[in-house]
Every structure is written in structure tokens, then in C-alpha cells.
Here is the input.
Amino acid sequence: MESLLKPFVKTIVIKGKPGAGKTTLSLELIRMAGSGLYVSTRVALKELVDQYPYIKPLVEEGAVRGISFEDLRLGSAADVMEAVIKATEELKNPVIILDSWDSIAKELDPVERLRAEKSLAAMVEPTESKLVFVSETAESSTLDYLADAIVVLEDREVDGARMRYIAWEKIRGTPIPQKRYIFTLHEGRFRMFQPSAIRRPEPTREFRPIKLEGAYSTGSIQLDKLLGRGIPKGSGILFLLGREVFSHVILPFIATMISNFVITGGSAVVLPIAGISMRAMTEATVGQLPEELKSKIKVVDVRKEEIDLASPEAALRDLKRIIKETRGEEERSCMIIAGMDFLEYYFPGKDLRAMSLDIMGQVKDTEDTAVFIVRPSTKIRDELEDLVDSSLEINMMEGTLLLRSRKPPSIYYHLDFTGERGIELTPIV
Here is the structure.
């Protein structure tokens, strides 16, 4: 975003259909610059302040002004030029928004329109001002050749949920390493997401647990709300990892869920997940807890033959024994976490189906909870999704991690691991 405000970028074109977020992006540029003029054929500045309260201080200071269509009489190009000249003289390095230029210039013939666009661009060239043309169409126009920067906003539907993209078509003097990014208009702000950085959970000195009545908390208020109200006792939850998603993405979820579960009186048994080492899994789970609670988590090590993988019956027998030992004399509730791609390697087809049914049957009887992790290649993923109460899907789009609930269905959320609890969800709206 900052690249649009570089000194050598004078004229900017923002394209997109109605509702794509053009006005929000324009006002975000004004906020970043700290000064601006908003020329609109549709909305008065007062209405914008009500809708976007974060610009109110700048308006009250006089750093941001607005001119509506009525103020410009017939809204002629000459009137717009006069307003632009005045703004460059009276405001300090303003960002001047023409919203929308299509409406202002619709009465001009092609030759007059090109002349007006060249004149406007020439006015800001010797100044520190920026001129933003807002266009309702993504088609090429004469402006494309004059502009220093062109961005196109897209509002699409992906698997029944909204997805917003910003496409960087041109930025003079600046490389474009990635053309498209995901963005959101959450809380009336324009926020573009950079490619996600995958971070492993770091041990924390203090974890403040969340307790729910009649359900288990995931340890994240946002995740609890996404699921409805946490994880119901005696239920299962499924995590579906997309093809481009690294296995380690699941670790912050496991770390947060297990920490909350054990600190609030539970225990946990973790079966292997393909792509995650024993060391990484142990650090993400046991490493997050105080010393006195570490025995309440068992990360199963198949290298030590702690579970017999010769048959599903033998594996289930050992799993039940491990769960009983981990519960302890207090008979704590248990969270069972299993990587189904790992188990499917040993027990393909009907054997794994039977094993999954047995685990879920035990979970319902004892009011425990089970967490299954699957990949696109996991053959029984659809059957597992029918079996559990909730399913969450993690995908990578434009280098950005996104999460949505498939069961119950939800919108998309940007997924970040820099929050206080290691999981931060921002809705794509």
C-alpha cells in the first residue's frame, strides 16, 4: 500500500465494480497521507465520515475536504480542475480522489476526455500531491497510459463464500513480485494481506484458559464463535488441510486447544501426523504447559512401539490403554488428536473407517472429544466429515492462509499466528 504514496507516483487509477471497495481504499490512502480532497458524484463528505469514522479527526482539522456533485454545479471537467488546483495550493500534499471519474467525464467526447485527463495529471506532476481516478470498469482506457499506478479490485465467490482480491496492474518504478493479494473491508478499513509466514508455537509463561458450560473451548474466543460455541462434549472436529498448506500450520491449533483443555482439567493423547516430527509435536504440546501438567499429555511415539500398528484391533487396544493411563486417577476428560493420513498408511479402506467409528463411539460415551486432521488425498475424508460435528478447512490462496468452517458453513477468515493466543482470525467481508 505504501508504494502508492511514493514521491514518483503522482496519478493512480483504482478500478472495480460497485461494492468492490474502491471508496474504502481511496479513503485509506487519504488517511495514510494525512491530507486529502474527496470529489464525489455520489456521496457527501459528511456521509463518508459517518461511514468511515477514522477520517473524522482529519476532517475536523481541515486536512481533508469534500466536494459533492452539487457543489460542482454541473460537475464539469473545468470545475474539477479548478477544485484540484485549489486543493494543491491550500492543502499539504493532499491525496485528491475523483469518485468516480467515469461519472464526471461521461459528458466529454473521447478527445476532450483525454485532454482533461492529461491536464489533471499535469497539475499534480510538479507538486507533492496525488491524484486518484476511481473507475467503475476494469476495462482498459486512456487513463491506463497516463497513470503511474493501476490497481483492480475484485469481489468474487469461492465455494459459496466471498473472496476479495486486489490486482496490481502497474506501479511505476516499483517491482511487482506478486500480482494479486487477498484483502478485506472488515470494520470499514481496507486491509491487504501479505503472504503468510508460518511460525511454530513458542512456549509461553502464562496461558489464560477459557471455560465454557457444556462444551470444551478451543482456547481461542474467535475459534469458539466460529464453531458456534466451542466443541460440544462427546463430539469430534475435523481439520482439512489444503494441498498447498504445510503440515506445521496445524501446530498452533493443537498447541492452543491442548493447553486450554489440559489446564481446565483435561488430558490429551496425540497420535502422529504425517509431516510433523516427534520433536516438533512435543514442543508444540507438552512444551506449552507448566511442569506439573506435562504428564497429562501423551504424544505417542511409534518408533518406540508404544502402539501396535500390526492391526486396527491391536492399535485400538493400545490406544484405549494409553488414554486410560493419561486420564490418571482423576479420570480426566481426554482430547484425542489423530493424523488420519498417517493411520491410513497402516489401515487403508474399511479398517480405518471401523477404527474411526470406534474412536467416535468411545468419545460420545465418555463425553471426550476427538480432533482428526486430513489431507485432500485422505480417502475417508468425506466419511469423517459426516461423522464429526464440526469441520474446518485451511487453504492457501495468493500466498495467504485462509480458514473457513465447512460444518457449519461460514465465511472465509484470514489466518494469522501473531495474536496473543497464537491464532488471529480476520473475516473477509
User: Anything to note?
Assistant: The mean pLDDT is 90.
